[in-house]
Specification:
alpha+beta, about 30% strand, 7 strands, about 150 residues, four-stranded antiparallel β-sheet, SH3 type barrels
Length: about 150
């Protein structure tokens, strides 16, 4: 009986050691895991960029205004905004969840959103200030213009 128990213990120890070695062979090294994680990130976020690339143009120096807020010499912000506003074609508006949005070329934009607008060789960041059932308000720097839909 003792020989049988000893044999069972030896066989079970051997099988346990064999299964541990098999499991260790299946575990990847930290470098392999890091490669898999980085590939997965690129699949989930294909436009993954560095922090510097993502914030380029967003972080400004307090004593130097952003280039997209400057107007050409001899022009006023109001005149530039009026020309930009006349060039924006709005498809309509929609209300969702108590907020009214503009429909621009199949896109939905709402109050607080910025529109990058090309005008006379410059890109301006125009802000949507307000949207009502019959009009919308655009802002560039300190100037605002209300347009009818």
């Amino acid at each position: 009986m003792n020989k049988k128990r000893l044999l069972i213990i030896l066989v079970s120890a051997f099988l346990s050691a064999l299964s541990v070695q098999t499991l260790q062979a299946q575990v990847r090294t930290p470098d392999d895991r890091l490669n898999v994680i980085s590939k997965a990130r690129l699949l989930v976020y294909p436009d993954l960029r560095t922090l510097e690339e993502m914030t380029e143009g967003m972080v400004t120096h307090p004593f130097h205004p952003r280039a997209d807020t400057l107007v050409a010499p001899g022009e006023t912000t109001r005149s530039v905004l009026a020309r930009i506003a006349s060039g924006i074609s709005v498809d309509g508006s929609i209300q969702m969840g108590g907020v009214r949005y503009l429909l621009l070329q199949g896109r939905r934009v709402g109050p607080g959103d910025y529109l990058p607008v090309q005008h006379e060789g410059r890109t301006y960041q125009v802000r949507i200030e307000a949207v009502t059932a019959s009009s919308y308000t655009l802002r560039l720097n300190d100037e605002e213009i209300e347009n009818n839909l």
